[in-house]
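fwd from M.: "can u put these together and see what the complex looks like"

so here's what she sent:
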Amino acid sequence: AQSVTQPDIHITVSEGASLELRCNYSYGATPYLFWYVQSPGQGLQLLLKYFSGDTLVQGIKGFEAEFKRSQSSFNLRKPSVHWSDAAEYFCAVGGDTNAGKSTFGDGTTLTVKP
Amino acid sequence: NAGVTQTPKFRILKIGQSMTLQCTQDMNHNYMYWYRQDPGMGLKLIYYSVGAGITDKGEVPNGYNVSRSTTEDFPLRLELAAPSQTSVYFCASRGLAVGTDTQYFGPGTRLTVL
Protein backbone atom coordinates (compact mmCIF):
# COMPACT_ATOMS: atom_id res chain seq x y z
CA ALA A 1 0.00 0.00 0.00
CA GLN A 2 1.20 3.51 -0.71
CA SER A 3 1.13 6.25 1.90
CA VAL A 4 2.45 9.72 2.62
CA THR A 5 3.24 11.30 5.97
CA GLN A 6 3.71 15.01 6.48
CA PRO A 7 4.89 15.21 10.10
CA ASP A 8 4.38 18.96 10.51
CA ILE A 9 0.76 20.07 10.60
CA HIS A 10 1.60 23.75 10.94
CA ILE A 11 4.83 25.70 10.41
CA THR A 12 5.45 29.39 11.02
CA VAL A 13 8.46 31.17 9.55
CA SER A 14 9.49 34.80 9.28
CA GLU A 15 9.52 36.46 5.90
CA GLY A 16 12.98 36.08 4.37
CA ALA A 17 13.83 33.00 6.42
CA SER A 18 14.47 29.60 4.90
CA LEU A 19 11.83 26.87 4.79
CA GLU A 20 11.83 23.09 4.82
CA LEU A 21 8.65 21.02 4.74
CA ARG A 22 9.02 17.34 5.42
CA CYS A 23 7.49 14.45 3.51
CA ASN A 24 7.96 10.73 4.02
CA TYR A 25 6.44 8.18 1.70
CA SER A 26 5.86 4.47 1.33
CA TYR A 27 5.58 2.95 -2.13
CA GLY A 28 6.26 -0.55 -3.41
CA ALA A 29 7.80 0.37 -6.74
CA THR A 30 9.59 3.32 -8.27
CA PRO A 31 7.77 6.33 -6.84
CA TYR A 32 6.70 9.47 -8.56
CA LEU A 33 6.63 12.28 -6.03
CA PHE A 34 4.84 15.59 -6.12
CA TRP A 35 4.43 18.75 -4.12
CA TYR A 36 1.28 20.82 -4.55
CA VAL A 37 0.31 24.17 -3.06
CA GLN A 38 -3.23 25.25 -2.25
CA SER A 39 -4.23 28.80 -1.35
CA PRO A 40 -7.43 29.27 0.66
CA GLY A 41 -10.52 28.46 -1.38
CA GLN A 42 -8.45 27.49 -4.39
CA GLY A 43 -7.55 24.30 -6.23
CA LEU A 44 -4.20 22.53 -6.22
CA GLN A 45 -1.23 23.91 -8.10
CA LEU A 46 1.70 21.63 -8.92
CA LEU A 47 4.96 23.05 -7.53
CA LEU A 48 7.32 20.32 -8.69
CA LYS A 49 7.60 16.62 -9.38
CA TYR A 50 10.19 13.86 -9.34
CA PHE A 51 10.10 10.96 -11.78
CA SER A 52 13.72 9.90 -12.17
CA GLY A 53 17.20 11.27 -12.68
CA ASP A 54 18.62 14.12 -10.65
CA THR A 55 17.40 13.79 -7.09
CA LEU A 56 17.27 17.55 -6.59
CA VAL A 57 14.36 18.98 -8.54
CA GLN A 58 13.53 22.60 -9.15
CA GLY A 59 10.00 23.88 -9.25
CA ILE A 60 8.05 27.05 -9.66
CA LYS A 61 8.14 30.04 -7.30
CA GLY A 62 11.73 29.28 -6.22
CA PHE A 63 10.95 25.94 -4.56
CA GLU A 64 13.09 22.85 -4.74
CA ALA A 65 12.85 19.32 -3.33
CA GLU A 66 15.32 16.53 -2.77
CA PHE A 67 14.49 12.86 -3.20
CA LYS A 68 16.31 10.60 -0.75
CA ARG A 69 15.51 6.98 -1.45
CA SER A 70 17.39 5.68 1.61
CA GLN A 71 15.25 7.85 3.88
CA SER A 72 12.00 7.55 1.85
CA SER A 73 11.80 11.31 1.94
CA PHE A 74 11.00 14.13 -0.45
CA ASN A 75 11.42 17.36 1.51
CA LEU A 76 10.46 20.72 0.06
CA ARG A 77 12.75 23.73 0.53
CA LYS A 78 12.89 27.41 -0.22
CA PRO A 79 15.87 29.63 0.67
CA SER A 80 13.87 32.79 1.38
CA VAL A 81 10.15 32.78 2.08
CA HIS A 82 7.82 35.52 0.84
CA TRP A 83 4.54 36.51 2.49
CA SER A 84 2.71 35.21 -0.59
CA ASP A 85 3.99 31.68 0.14
CA ALA A 86 1.53 31.35 3.02
CA ALA A 87 -0.70 28.43 1.98
CA GLU A 88 -1.33 24.71 2.46
CA TYR A 89 1.28 22.35 1.01
CA PHE A 90 0.59 18.76 0.04
CA CYS A 91 3.02 16.00 -0.76
CA ALA A 92 1.81 13.10 -2.92
CA VAL A 93 3.18 9.78 -4.16
CA GLY A 94 2.08 7.83 -7.22
CA GLY A 95 3.43 5.79 -10.09
CA ASP A 96 2.64 3.93 -13.26
CA THR A 97 1.13 0.97 -11.44
CA ASN A 98 -2.18 0.84 -9.60
CA ALA A 99 -4.11 2.84 -12.23
CA GLY A 100 -1.79 5.79 -11.72
CA LYS A 101 -3.45 6.66 -8.44
CA SER A 102 -1.80 9.21 -6.19
CA THR A 103 -1.93 9.24 -2.40
CA PHE A 104 -1.79 12.58 -0.64
CA GLY A 105 -0.50 13.58 2.74
CA ASP A 106 -2.70 15.56 5.12
CA GLY A 107 -0.86 18.75 4.34
CA THR A 108 1.26 21.34 6.13
CA THR A 109 -0.08 24.84 6.71
CA LEU A 110 2.55 27.52 6.28
CA THR A 111 2.18 30.84 8.07
CA VAL A 112 4.60 33.65 7.21
CA LYS A 113 5.31 36.31 9.84
CA PRO A 114 6.14 39.83 8.67
CA ASN B 1 -7.27 23.61 -23.94
CA ALA B 2 -9.59 24.25 -21.02
CA GLY B 3 -8.01 21.38 -19.07
CA VAL B 4 -10.29 19.94 -16.41
CA THR B 5 -13.55 21.76 -15.78
CA GLN B 6 -16.03 21.16 -12.98
CA THR B 7 -19.57 22.36 -12.44
CA PRO B 8 -21.09 23.70 -10.30
CA LYS B 9 -18.57 25.70 -8.26
CA PHE B 10 -20.80 25.83 -5.20
CA ARG B 11 -23.93 23.98 -4.11
CA ILE B 12 -26.05 23.70 -1.00
CA LEU B 13 -28.15 20.56 -0.64
CA LYS B 14 -30.71 19.49 1.89
CA ILE B 15 -30.36 16.12 3.59
CA GLY B 16 -31.75 13.40 1.35
CA GLN B 17 -31.47 15.34 -1.89
CA SER B 18 -29.39 14.06 -4.77
CA MET B 19 -27.15 15.77 -7.29
CA THR B 20 -24.53 15.16 -9.96
CA LEU B 21 -21.15 16.87 -9.99
CA GLN B 22 -19.90 17.27 -13.53
CA CYS B 23 -16.29 16.84 -14.64
CA THR B 24 -14.98 17.19 -18.18
CA GLN B 25 -11.44 17.09 -19.55
CA ASP B 26 -10.30 17.96 -23.06
CA MET B 27 -6.83 16.40 -22.94
CA ASN B 28 -7.91 12.93 -24.12
CA HIS B 29 -6.71 11.47 -20.82
CA ASN B 30 -7.55 7.87 -20.05
CA TYR B 31 -7.37 8.14 -16.27
CA MET B 32 -9.81 10.22 -14.28
CA TYR B 33 -10.30 10.57 -10.52
CA TRP B 34 -12.69 12.03 -7.99
CA TYR B 35 -11.36 13.23 -4.63
CA ARG B 36 -12.92 14.86 -1.63
CA GLN B 37 -11.11 17.23 0.70
CA ASP B 38 -12.44 17.76 4.19
CA PRO B 39 -11.33 20.81 6.21
CA GLY B 40 -7.71 20.54 7.34
CA MET B 41 -7.21 17.26 5.53
CA GLY B 42 -5.61 15.98 2.39
CA LEU B 43 -7.40 14.52 -0.59
CA LYS B 44 -9.16 11.18 -0.32
CA LEU B 45 -9.91 9.17 -3.46
CA ILE B 46 -13.61 8.43 -3.99
CA TYR B 47 -13.69 6.73 -7.39
CA TYR B 48 -11.46 6.45 -10.40
CA SER B 49 -11.64 5.35 -14.01
CA VAL B 50 -9.01 3.94 -16.35
CA GLY B 51 -11.06 4.50 -19.48
CA ALA B 52 -14.55 4.79 -20.88
CA GLY B 53 -16.79 2.14 -19.38
CA ILE B 54 -14.35 1.18 -16.61
CA THR B 55 -14.64 2.53 -13.08
CA ASP B 56 -13.55 1.36 -9.65
CA LYS B 57 -13.83 2.34 -6.01
CA GLY B 58 -11.25 4.36 -4.19
CA GLU B 59 -10.74 4.89 -0.49
CA VAL B 60 -14.10 6.46 0.42
CA PRO B 61 -16.78 5.39 -2.13
CA ASN B 62 -19.81 4.99 0.15
CA GLY B 63 -22.69 7.28 -0.78
CA TYR B 64 -21.39 7.99 -4.27
CA ASN B 65 -21.69 6.58 -7.77
CA VAL B 66 -19.87 7.29 -11.00
CA SER B 67 -20.13 6.51 -14.68
CA ARG B 68 -17.76 6.96 -17.61
CA SER B 69 -19.59 6.74 -20.91
CA THR B 70 -17.04 8.88 -22.78
CA THR B 71 -13.35 9.64 -22.44
CA GLU B 72 -14.10 13.29 -21.67
CA ASP B 73 -16.76 13.07 -18.96
CA PHE B 74 -16.68 11.55 -15.47
CA PRO B 75 -19.74 12.63 -13.44
CA LEU B 76 -20.04 11.91 -9.72
CA ARG B 77 -23.50 11.19 -8.37
CA LEU B 78 -24.56 11.75 -4.77
CA GLU B 79 -27.71 9.92 -3.76
CA LEU B 80 -29.43 10.77 -0.47
CA ALA B 81 -27.04 13.54 0.56
CA ALA B 82 -25.85 13.50 4.17
CA PRO B 83 -24.06 16.17 6.26
CA SER B 84 -20.95 13.95 6.22
CA GLN B 85 -20.69 14.63 2.50
CA THR B 86 -20.08 18.32 3.09
CA SER B 87 -16.68 18.77 1.49
CA VAL B 88 -14.79 20.16 -1.46
CA TYR B 89 -14.74 17.81 -4.43
CA PHE B 90 -11.92 17.75 -6.94
CA CYS B 91 -11.82 15.97 -10.26
CA ALA B 92 -8.47 15.12 -11.87
CA SER B 93 -7.16 13.42 -14.99
CA ARG B 94 -3.85 12.09 -16.27
CA GLY B 95 -2.49 10.53 -19.43
CA LEU B 96 -1.58 6.92 -20.00
CA ALA B 97 2.04 7.25 -21.09
CA VAL B 98 4.62 5.82 -18.72
CA GLY B 99 6.53 8.51 -16.90
CA THR B 100 3.88 11.18 -17.24
CA ASP B 101 2.14 10.69 -13.93
CA THR B 102 1.02 14.25 -13.41
CA GLN B 103 -2.59 14.66 -12.44
CA TYR B 104 -4.32 17.78 -13.66
CA PHE B 105 -6.93 19.09 -11.27
CA GLY B 106 -10.15 20.95 -11.79
CA PRO B 107 -11.00 24.02 -9.67
CA GLY B 108 -13.26 22.08 -7.30
CA THR B 109 -16.90 22.04 -6.23
CA ARG B 110 -17.71 23.23 -2.71
CA LEU B 111 -20.70 21.26 -1.42
CA THR B 112 -22.62 21.90 1.78
CA VAL B 113 -25.31 19.52 3.00
CA LEU B 114 -27.69 20.97 5.59
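replying to her w this: The interface with chain A takes residues 31, 33, 35, 40-45, 48, 50, 56, 58, 90, 94, 98-99, 101-103, 105-108 of chain B (CB under 8 Å).
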